[in-house]
Amino acid sequence: MAISEEDVLNALKTVQDPDLHQDLVTLGLIKEIKIAGGKVSVTVELTTPACPLKGKIKQDVENAVRSVAGVSDVDVQMTANVRPAFVAERKGIQGIKNVIAIASGKGGVGKSTVSVNLAVVLAKSGASVGLMDADIYGPNIPLMMGLAGKPHAEGNRIIPPQNYGVKVMSMGFMIPEDQAVIWRGPMLHGAIQQFLSDVAWDDLDYLLVDLPPGTGDVQLSLSQAVPLTGSVMVTTPQAVSLQDVRKGIAMFEKVRVPILGLIENMSYFNCTHCGGRTEIFSHGGGRRAAESLGIKFLGEIPIDTKVREGGDSGKPIVVTDPSSEAAVSFSKIAEFLAAEVSINHFSNQDFVKFTAEDAPGKPGVSGAVPARGYRPRAGGGEATLSRPLTL
Ligand code: ADP
């Protein structure tokens, strides 16, 4: 008896996406079924190329199809199409499917390092990735990404420099290294908005935004300027850092940005001489805090001098030493994060529009703020800062 498409679909209905808790057919993840005699080819379209369970899903599909009477050969192709964030009442930036803020309660916990390594891992998985350095007070993403010089402009759009498959935009490209810029609320808001709208990001699955530490104007400006898929909090295990992260989480909740998860950086140290493990800042506080706050714990990253060297040399550890413990941690965290974004899409939550009223007394976020800051020169050439306030 000839195999019918219905037989195959019925078999595929038994395969669940472990993250989304529904079967692949109901989720619309089966893109194509081809039947040629006893050979069945199935194309599965995952919600992210960085799916942590890609191998398991592929195996489950193969087993299910093989169980259909008459099937002698199975070929499973895995593709991916990242879904855009579902944010009610908010219009996103065309072509950018997900904007993810990377935040921390305090500086020096490795937020930029985490942003860089996660961005590179996601790009390596096949996703289209951008990294926006909104840490305008200490923009060190260009250095960490091995990029220098001013970006070029084409017409009114700034072309983001690229490395390791990641498009990057940073205030660090726009200001001379020895100059400091004083940011007033409106100007800052304008710069954030221009980073989102005037940069030729062009079709991104994920735009990671490295925020300055704390709960200031940039965080609020960003939540106002664009519907965020969610935020990721980075902390170190010490109590003081965790206390700060709690404040950060409270702020994102106040502006109704979902928290995608918490990452514990500098979790422990594996001694290269004796092989022993030392928990310099204690360990496990991130997981406990995530549990008590009811948010996802995305994983922990050890202290490794190669992580710092990677940052200083502009060669992230996930590129130079992908099998190291730290790089494997970054990869797993990136996969969990991508899975969280997919879950967020399918859970169809009604994130309510952020309004300026939600941020009483916050300068620079309320009302219509004129876009200022840098402007690319029309007609091409180098992008420049039009109104720098230098010390
Ligand atoms: P933040 O963005 O939170 O201010 P950075 O990413 O700039 O922090 O990191 C601060 C310093 O710590 C940098 O020198 C960085 O290379 C280093 N660092 C970050 N994470 C690790 C790690 N897991 N192991 C070793 N050094 C790290």
The count of β-strands is 19
In the residues, how many domains can be counted? Answer: 2
CATH superfamily of the largest domain: P-loop containing nucleotide triphosphate hydrolases
Examine the coordinates and then state which fold CATH places here, giving the name of the CATH topology of the largest domain: Rossmann fold
From the structure above, extract its key features.
32% helix; Rossmann fold; 391 residues; GMP Synthetase, Chain A, domain 3; 12 helices; binds adenosine-5'-diphosphate; 8-stranded mixed sheet; 2 domains; 4-stranded antiparallel sheet; disordered C terminus; alpha/beta
Short description:
The chain is of the alpha/beta class.
Could you characterize the architecture of this molecule?
The chain is α/β, with parallel strands linked by helices and 391 residues long. It folds into 2 domains: 5-80, GMP Synthetase, Chain A, domain 3; 99-358, P-loop containing nucleotide triphosphate hydrolases (Rossmann fold). Helices cover 32% and strands 21% of the residues. The protein has 12 helices and 19 strands. It has helices at residues 5-12, 54-66, 111-124, 141-144, 171-174, 185-197, 217-225, 239-254, 285-293, 305-313, 317-320, 325-347; strands spanning 16-17, 22-23, 30-36, 39-46, 73-80, 99-104, 129-133, 152-154, 157-158, 162-163, 166-170, 206-210, 230-235, 259-264, 269-270, 277-278, 297-300, 374-376, 381-385. The chain has an 8-stranded mixed β-sheet with strand order 10-11-7-12-6-13-14-17, sandwiched between helices. A 4-stranded antiparallel β-sheet has the order 9-8-19-18, with no helix packed on it. Strand 1 and strand 2 (22-23) form a beta hairpin. Helix 6 crosses helix 7 (217-225). It is globular. Adenosine-5'-diphosphate binds next to helix 3 and helix 10.
